[in-house]
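sorry for the late reply, my laptop died twice this morning and i had to redo everyting from scratch. anyway the thing you sent over, i finally got around to it. pasting the sequence first so we're on the same page, its 131 residues, then the predicted structure underneath. double check i copied it right bc i was rushing
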Amino acid sequence: MMSYAETKILIVEDDGLLASTFEMFIKQIGYTHFGTATSSADALKLCETMLPDIVLMDIHLEGEKTGIETAAFLGKEFNLPVVYITGDDSIETVRNAVLKNTYGFLSKPLRRNVLEASIEFALNKHRIDYE
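ok and here's the structure:
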């Protein structure tokens, strides 16, 4: 099993303050911050060069594609596990977000210990699903 420091996390969040908070939490927990994207296009560019181990995805992003559409593509093309972090917890949004590579759904504002538990769960569940 990979150590925390070896685990690369991509943040896809268009709110700069929230993205900075997530980056801080990731570093405090001991994970590696892979990068931050503010749009679907930015996220895809980052993943084309080197893959993260997990993606923290906002559902409503700048640009043409939503976080859900971006997550679907990342799952299909790269088999990346996604944990959604969103302020939109409507049941319709939750239903739309359920994809094969969905491994969590967290509401903002986010607490560090909840983020840590969710990342750990998602990584282990993804590993078990694909062993």
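Helices lie at 16-29, 40-49, 67-78, 91-97, 112-129.
thats about all i looked at so far, will dig more tmrw
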